[in-house]
Amino acid sequence: VEQSPPQSPGPGKAGDAPNRRSGHVRGARVLSPPGRRARLSSPGPSSSSEAREELRRRLRGLIERSRVMIFSKSYCPHSTRVKELFSSLGVECNVLELDQVDDGAKVQEVLSEITNQKTVPNVFVNKVHVGGCDQTFQAYQSGLLQKLLQEDSAYDYDLIIVGGGSGGLSCAKEAAILGKKVMVLDFVVPSPQGTSWGLGGTCVNVGCIPKKLMHQAALLGQALCDSRKFGWEYNQQVKHNWETMTKAIQNHISSLNWGYRLSLREKAVAYVNSYGEFVEHHKIKVTNKKGQETYYTAAQFVIATGERPRYLGIQGDKEYCITSDDLFSLPYCPGKTLVVGASYVALECAGFLAGIGLDVTVMVRSILLRGFDQEMAEKVGSYMEQHGVKFLRKFIPVMIQQLEKGSPGKLKVLAKSTEGTETIEGVYNTVLLAIGRDSCTRKMGLEKIGVKINEKSGKIPVNDVEQTSVPYVFAVGDISEGKPELTPVAIQSGKLLARRLFGASLEKCDYINVPTTVFTPLEYGCCGLAEEKAIEVYKKENLEIYHTLFWPLEWTVAGRENNTCYAKIICNKLDHDRVIGFHILGPNAGEVTQGFAAAMKCGLTKQLLDDTIGIHPTCGEVFTTLEITKSSGLDITQKGCG
Amino acid sequence: MAAMAVALRGLGGRFRWRTQAVAGGVRGAARGAAGQRDYDLLVIGGGSGGLACAKEAAQLGRKVAVVDYVEPSPQGTRWGLGGTCVNVGCIPKKLMHQAALLGGLIQDAPHYGWEVAQPVPHDWRKMAEAVQNHVKSLNWGHRVQLQDRKVKYFNIKASFVDEHTVCGVAKGGKEILLSADHIIIATGGRPRYPMHIEGALEYGITSDDIFWLKESPGKTLVVGASYVALECAGFLTGIGLDTTVMIRSIPLRGFDQQMSSMVIEHMASHGTRFLRGCAPSRVRRLPDGHLQVTWEDCTTGKEDTGTFDTVLWAIGRVPDTRSLNLEKAGVDTSPDTQKILVDSREGTSVPHIYAIGDVVEVPTTVFTPLEYGCVGLSEEEAVARHGQEHVEVYHAHYKPLEFTVAGRDASQCYVKMVCLREPPQLVLGLHFLGPSAGEVTQGFALGIKCGASYAQVMRTVGIHPTCSEEVVKLRISKRSGLDPTVTGC
């Protein structure tokens, strides 16, 4: 058992717990990292009675989840004796040192309400309150303690996870590593076009992975053009073959699906390819493709069902349109394509389709990349426009008609202006809807066990430890309300959740400064705040924004345009010019952004950027030479060369 | 090469201090004593460091001149304003590296559906011309920038007459005297020739020549183990040339040796030949025009020969100070290396004369076919400083997503982070081998500068799917003995 978790305290803090050693017993999982003041109740404006209720709920949770739970104080000799007793029995126990958490006194109060016992140690074995030190030793001498310890869970599983995507799988694997009996339910309801896929969720099957690979195909198209300028010689017009690409990508995805199956098996996680639906508390009904039903129970549940693309709700949409669920495995080239929407999914798909040579139009209702920095979003759009993608702004489709069947067929799209009465018509081979995604939370019996969802969005509200309104049910990934919808976030929160549930860790997922990259033809990487958001939060006068255009060295000889790639940082003048927003538009934006995100976690400031030697010649080095502020209004175009 | 860039960047911070000195009391005193000198500041050497100084001082209202003269290489290669980095260093190197990378991408393209008939031949002349044209445009850009900032530029070869005066000789032999209150020496360095080897000077070329060759170098022997040697061998192989590297002892000395051997492994598996533990003894021209190189295997003592079209020496660089007549100004140099002795603020033994530029510092990215980016300490250095017991190394092999569909081998894609073992496990060094290593490394360099701990890096959310996210997913320590190879996704 790890005594000090990897997030151990910083230097100088260890002294906060001078008596730590006395309470330090092998086999005990210390819930509060030594020396670090943890809180069990979430801080916030909630009223004290609500906070108390919340704390009570969490204590109940701790007690229910632990084979042995000891509320202790690190300097208390009686607590130490109890811990040594369990250690000698070879029994792992969860320990909460009340003198090492901020709200220890409150915990003790609530405990005395629950148990009528005011002192520590306060010991629970398999949810049964045993008592203090004396009672525990009496129980031990009478054999009651051993009997209590042998009592197993009445449930089939310690944990059932609904949804085998990034978040669900990472949680499942971690829980299994911690010795728990785990089941994963995963079932892909076919898209209206009949597309279905294997284990791994959106990212692997119909998201990041195939998207980035098709983006790479498009980049290779660009590389082929560039390569002639760099001396590579071929004369023929290079054509692109959709089937070859798609087959190669689907083969890779199949190998990933298989890899996930294998790794679940290796970790003895039960995988069931069936649809799960709650029927009563701690009980779920599981239906397979053939309609056969089975029932399973578990002590805890994690909901990680993710989202699916939204449809417009107009005539012809479900019959004739495709979504990102279908595109990556489309058996034929989509041909002339209308992409409806301005989400990153819409722009990424439009980008790579144009990049492999297709005629692509994007229909946008209002703004591009809502939620992202709008200056960057517009630059992403205008680069696409300069590279052949057509944009129809301020229009929405009202009807889709099939003109011809085929692979692809021909569709007529009728659209109307969002500002007036104007309507337009267009004929396309394929219409791809990318207008947003809906949570898969409505048809799984959540109401039967009382898990609250946001009626409007379908998302599940969770607290900062991913717990839903029902204490034994948790939610991770895209369906949790207010969390970034990103694979690495889901993986991280799933893993940390398992560690908190079963591994005596208190580490919570940190949702601040989550970096991301949009893989449009010109990639856009960002971390921290958009300019608009920064102004809203900190006020314009307290910010300094540094920016520049730049020309990647590889673009010069290739004859690609100057004054297109762009870098911008937003600094908080009131906090030592700390970098609170990082934005880059250029090649390899994802690779560039990652390290800066780590630096922002460590308090990156403008001064540090200025003091750093750039790696030459790279795009990333541009951030170490930013001189021009936006407020100065100075020209940032590059004349000729750096 | 990249060291010039290092110097330029370093100046940003340090030069501010320097220019204040130039603009302030020191200058006043000097002028008061000596009367009218031609310039407030004279910069000898028009490389990245020198130009940055000159421009910055001019911006502050000083009267500045730059003198720059490129002594032709023994093979007669010459170039324009901008120094090593622009003309015979980072810039052409990275562009030729890019040409080689594009060759790899052309081979990937059919896997991604592009119908390109293979193999695709490469035309050296076309590449070289494009690269040279870009470099010439940069030369021109530097000229224009000096003009814009009213910095006087002289294309003359300079040597000291006294501590405030420099004599310049133009191409035609015309002499000119220039005096200044403050003088900065930024002449950089030039590749070293192995003068003891017969035929080395007559038949061999260096990095001063390779980027300016009009014709393909053909079958090439690269002698040396520096990053310059490996980078050149890498792009030559990448554009389809038969390339051999001869290394006497340790490749990439000073770099992390595990990473260094992986760089070599990758190159070897992609067609570069290596002759390890060998040292050349002579070069002769055969009647058919080929070069015959004779070398000795240092362990067995046996001699061997081979024929090549080109022999490229990449065995190090020497400072370009001999023709400066430094003794006339009283500037001290190191007797063995000819390097100018400087203090921590670039000051020389003469108070108003400074030396900057080709400082001996390793670049943070080596642009070998599989790029190697690093920042901070190597594993060896960390162990030497802190002791094995106090160092924890986290590492992983990974497979870039783009490699999967292309069916590329990712055996050498590897990342390792060297940390202190005691919490909070301060990051001492980061080493990254893989595509876009330079781009990946830059941000993390900042993180390390911010005092990043292992835990902080691990708490950073990854960007999916990228290569750089592998850094924030490092979970396996070397000490654990667990397998760091990739499994699944």
TrEMBL record, chain A:
<keyword id="KW-0217">Developmental protein</keyword>
<dbReference type="InterPro" id="IPR036249">
    <property type="entry name" value="Thioredoxin-like_sf"/>
</dbReference>
<dbReference type="InterPro" id="IPR023753">
    <property type="entry name" value="FAD/NAD-binding_dom"/>
</dbReference>
<keyword id="KW-0597">Phosphoprotein</keyword>
<dbReference type="GO" id="GO:0005739">
    <property type="term" value="C:mitochondrion"/>
</dbReference>
<keyword id="KW-0492">Microsome</keyword>
<comment type="subunit">
    <text>Homodimer.</text>
</comment>
<dbReference type="GO" id="GO:0004791">
    <property type="term" value="F:thioredoxin-disulfide reductase (NADPH) activity"/>
</dbReference>
<comment type="function">
    <text>Displays thioredoxin reductase, glutaredoxin and glutathione reductase activities. Catalyzes disulfide bond isomerization. Promotes disulfide bond formation between GPX4 and various sperm proteins and may play a role in sperm maturation by promoting formation of sperm structural components.</text>
</comment>
<keyword id="KW-0744">Spermatogenesis</keyword>
<dbReference type="GO" id="GO:0030154">
    <property type="term" value="P:cell differentiation"/>
</dbReference>
<feature type="region of interest" description="Disordered">
    <location>
        <begin position="1"/>
        <end position="54"/>
    </location>
</feature>
<dbReference type="GO" id="GO:0007283">
    <property type="term" value="P:spermatogenesis"/>
</dbReference>
<keyword id="KW-1015">Disulfide bond</keyword>
<feature type="compositionally biased region" description="Low complexity">
    <location>
        <begin position="31"/>
        <end position="49"/>
    </location>
</feature>
<keyword id="KW-0712">Selenocysteine</keyword>
<feature type="domain" description="Pyridine nucleotide-disulphide oxidoreductase dimerisation">
    <location>
        <begin position="514"/>
        <end position="625"/>
    </location>
</feature>
<keyword id="KW-0256">Endoplasmic reticulum</keyword>
<dbReference type="InterPro" id="IPR011899">
    <property type="entry name" value="Glutaredoxin_euk/vir"/>
</dbReference>
<keyword id="KW-0539">Nucleus</keyword>
<keyword id="KW-0285">Flavoprotein</keyword>
<keyword id="KW-0521">NADP</keyword>
UniProtKB/TrEMBL annotation, chain B:
<keyword id="KW-0560">Oxidoreductase</keyword>
<feature type="binding site">
    <location>
        <position position="94"/>
    </location>
    <ligand>
        <name>FAD</name>
    </ligand>
</feature>
<feature type="binding site">
    <location>
        <position position="358"/>
    </location>
    <ligand>
        <name>FAD</name>
    </ligand>
</feature>
<dbReference type="GO" id="GO:0004362">
    <property type="term" value="F:glutathione-disulfide reductase (NADPH) activity"/>
</dbReference>
<protein>
    <submittedName>
        <fullName>Thioredoxin reductase 2</fullName>
    </submittedName>
</protein>
<keyword id="KW-0547">Nucleotide-binding</keyword>
<dbReference type="GO" id="GO:0005829">
    <property type="term" value="C:cytosol"/>
</dbReference>
<dbReference type="InterPro" id="IPR001100">
    <property type="entry name" value="Pyr_nuc-diS_OxRdtase"/>
</dbReference>
<dbReference type="Pfam" id="PF07992">
    <property type="entry name" value="Pyr_redox_2"/>
</dbReference>
<feature type="active site" description="Proton acceptor">
    <location>
        <position position="464"/>
    </location>
</feature>
<feature type="binding site">
    <location>
        <begin position="224"/>
        <end position="231"/>
    </location>
    <ligand>
        <name>NAD(+)</name>
    </ligand>
</feature>
<keyword id="KW-0676">Redox-active center</keyword>
<dbReference type="GO" id="GO:0045454">
    <property type="term" value="P:cell redox homeostasis"/>
</dbReference>
<dbReference type="GO" id="GO:0034599">
    <property type="term" value="P:cellular response to oxidative stress"/>
</dbReference>
<keyword id="KW-0521">NADP</keyword>
<keyword id="KW-0520">NAD</keyword>
<dbReference type="InterPro" id="IPR012999">
    <property type="entry name" value="Pyr_OxRdtase_I_AS"/>
</dbReference>
<dbReference type="GO" id="GO:0005739">
    <property type="term" value="C:mitochondrion"/>
</dbReference>
<dbReference type="InterPro" id="IPR036188">
    <property type="entry name" value="FAD/NAD-bd_sf"/>
</dbReference>
<keyword id="KW-0274">FAD</keyword>
<feature type="binding site">
    <location>
        <position position="316"/>
    </location>
    <ligand>
        <name>NAD(+)</name>
    </ligand>
</feature>
<dbReference type="GO" id="GO:0050660">
    <property type="term" value="F:flavin adenine dinucleotide binding"/>
</dbReference>
